[in-house]
Design goal:
Layout: E1 6-9, H1 13-24, E2 32-35, H2 39-49, E3 52-54, H3 57-63, E4 66-69, H4 73-83, E5 92-95, H5 102-109, E6 114-119, E7 129-135, H6 141-152, E8 155-159, H7 165-174, H8 176-193, H9 198-218, H10 223-230, H11 236-246, H12 249-272
Parallel strand pairs: 1-2, 1-4, 2-3, 4-5, 5-6, 7-8
Antiparallel strand pairs: 6-7
Length: 275
């Protein structure tokens, strides 16, 4: 990272989270540059991080050896087409845009470009994210570790060799936070139906999810072993688990994750279908 100049195209929520993670981890202010169409937002970022700002993406790109594409997926093709043929082949592109395939990004940029695709999830905004990473053939091992260092500032990183697995990662962890929010909503409603004050039911549910996640992530036991340990024979937990199983809980989850996977695949096709 020492000699890298990292340019962010798009100064929104994700760029903000990654830049603050990088600066906390010791990246110098003058190694990071940022570009956006929104001048008011750029001024905010400059005031917070003391970074060089640009309203012209090509000027930013000309100065950086790593470019993080942090715009919405729908504008990515137009952003890339403006950069077409203006990058050196040594420039590493990191795209965090959901769904857009590396071959489409490479095509829009004019070909022969090192591209890493990341699929971070929303907890990255709190530096608690997890992301899948995929590198195309042009990415060197040095560029792979550079990409991993950048994403590591907000996420745990897991590499895949097959880009289509990013759709599976999207279905499990990319969309995953919303599944847990739904579970929290349902537990809150169920607690309130039993007479608890709704805010109390919500607090009980959220803290339980947090505690259970921390137990699962710090324990050597699998989630199934942890569940078995807290499920006493003929106890309250067993009654609830049996009710979940009677309603085919596992099948419900499997169908939902498959639906997200199929949609991720469709979105990738739609976003690349620009000719
Ligand atoms: N937020 C998350 O938790 C999350 C998680 C995983 C992946 N992602 C991905 O991360 C990417 C960024 O998400 P975000 O939440 O940070 O979005 P965001 O807050 O909307 O930021 C995107 C920024 O890009 C600007 N922009 C639009 N067109 C531009 C252009 N041609 N050149 C330069 N900047 C331009 C936007 O300006 P305007 O608002 O004026 O258009 C906006 O300030 C998305 O592709 C998303 O799929 C986000």
């Amino acid at each position: 990272m020492q000699n890298s100049l990292i340019g962010f195209i798009g100064a929104g929520n994700m760029a903000h989270a990654i830049i603050s993670g990088l600066i906390n981890n010791g990246t110098k202010h003058n190694q990071i540059k940022i570009s956006d169409t929104n001048e008011a937002l750029l001024s905010l970022r400059k005031a917070e991080f003391n970074l060089e700002i640009f309203t012209d993406n090509t000027k930013l790109a000309a100065q950086c050896n790593v470019i993080v594409l942090a715009v919405k997926p729908q504008v990515l093709s137009s952003v890339c087409k403006v950069l077409k043929k203006k990058l050196t082949t040594n420039t590493l592109i990191i795209s965090i845009a959901a769904g857009v395939r590396s071959r489409d990004i490479e095509r829009w940029l004019g070909g022969n470009q090192a591209i890493v695709r990341a699929m971070p999830n929303t907890p990255a905004l709190l530096k608690q994210g997890i992301t899948g990473l995929f590198a195309n053939e042009q990415v060197s091992s040095k560029q792979k570790s550079l990409a991993e260092n950048i994403l590591n500032s907000v996420c745990e990183c897991l590499w895949v060799d097959d880009e289509s697995l990013l759709d599976a990662i999207t279905a499990v962890s990319g969309s995953g936070p919303a599944y847990f929010f739904l579970m929290l909503e349902s537990m809150t409603k169920a607690g309130a139906a039993l007479g608890l004050d709704e805010r109390m039911a919500q607090k009980l549910s959220i803290q339980t999810a947090l505690g259970a996640s921390m137990m699962a992530s710090s324990s050597e036991d699998s989630p199934q072993q942890l569940r078995n340990k807290v499920t006493s024979k003929n106890g309250t937990t067993q009654a609830a688990i049996e009710s979940f199983q009677d309603q085919n809980f596992e099948v419900i989850i499997a169908h939902a994750i498959r639906a997200a996977f199929d949609r991720a695949n469709e979105i990738g096709i739609e976003l690349g279908n620009d000719e």
